[in-house]
Amino acid sequence: GVLPLGRRPPAWGTAARQPPGLPLAPARAFSNNKILVELDESSGVAMMKFKSPPVNSLSLDVLTEFCISLEKLENNRACRGVIFTSAIPKIFSSGLDITEMCGKSAEHYAEFWRAVQEMWLRLYGCNMVTIAAVNGSSPAGGCLIALSCDYRIMVDNPKFSIGLNEAQLGIVAPFWFKDTFVNVVGQRIAERSLQLGALHPAPEALKLGLVDELVPEEKLQEKAAAVMAQWLAMPDHARQITKSMMRKTVLDRLISHREEDIQHFINFTSKESIQKSLRTYMEMLRKKK
């Protein structure tokens, strides 16, 4: 299960700092197949890059690696913040892998959906500072990852868009996707955007408050590091408790309804009409290639 926020003993804002004049500690990397992680122990900041070509879709494998990587970082006292980005140009993450939802068994759907829940519970409830450095388009589940972070910086390019576009595929964003979205942009914008399955180009996403700022692509990493430093200047315990207080209601709502949420996903996904619209969508994607 998921560990509650603030389970790690607070570091009371005393991350190990390098004495001046000493060479910086090398960045430690541990990578799985689809997620690259580099931790710079001197700054306490990790970079997690999605690397699952062609479009970083969130398959069961990717979701599992994501949770394992995040847990490793949470358990490492040297790590205080994580920046999420993509190793693939033009795409942050295309969201949930539709092939995991098409023509599979009820058991498979249950396992897949549990992994999606786990990813969100870990990320939304993470006591480290989390920043999304969105360097490409970010529909559906990709948008959920960004929404679940503390801060979102996106590349200033109208070709890149972000949003929960589930309605376009004839599927419904679950209540906890909706809750996360409402908490970022407010009820009215979320209501319109979700019903229309809208994908918002970067400038519009900024205007709606869906992302916090836009920067030129070459400035993205530098900006993410600067914002991270600003957040890490806070005493950890005060920031962590505040975050937990702000997010607890939404987290608890899924935690107490996990099993029925899985059951609902199985019933919904197994419907022939939904299978048909997913197949149509996959066919359309194949033709686009």
Automatic annotation (TrEMBL):
Q: Where in the cell is it found?
A: Mitochondrion matrix
Gene3D superfamilies recorded for this chain? 2-enoyl-CoA Hydratase, Chain A, domain 1, 6.10.250.170
Q: Write down the EC number.
A: 5.3.3.8
> Which range is the signal sequence, renumbered to this chain?
none
Record's GO cellular component, any one?
mitochondrial matrix
Query: Which segments of the protein form a coiled coil according to its record?
Result: none
Which pathway is recorded for this entry?
A: Lipid metabolism; fatty acid beta-oxidation
Q: Which GO terms describe its biological process?
A: fatty acid beta-oxidation
InterPro entries for the chain: ClpP/crotonase-like_dom_sf (IPR029045), Enoyl-CoA_hyd/isom_CS (IPR018376), Enoyl-CoA_hydra/iso (IPR001753)
PROSITE patterns recorded: ENOYL_COA_HYDRATASE (PS00166)
Top-level taxonomic group: Eukaryota
* Entry keywords, A to Z: Acetylation, Fatty acid metabolism, Isomerase, Lipid metabolism, Mitochondrion, Transit peptide
Instruction: Report the family membership.
Output: Belongs to the enoyl-CoA hydratase/isomerase family.
Question: What does the subunit section of this Swiss-Prot or TrEMBL entry state?
Answer: Homotrimer.
Q: What is this protein for, i.e. what is its function?
A: Key enzyme of fatty acid beta-oxidation. Able to isomerize both 3-cis (3Z) and 3-trans (3E) double bonds into the 2-trans (2E) form in a range of enoyl-CoA species, with a preference for (3Z)-enoyl-CoAs over (3E)-enoyl-CoAs. The catalytic efficiency of this enzyme is not affected by the fatty acyl chain length.
- Spell out the protein name for this chain: Enoyl-CoA delta isomerase 1, mitochondrial
What taxonomic ancestry is recorded?
Answer: Eukaryota, Metazoa, Chordata, Craniata, Vertebrata
By which gene is this protein encoded?
Answer: Eci1
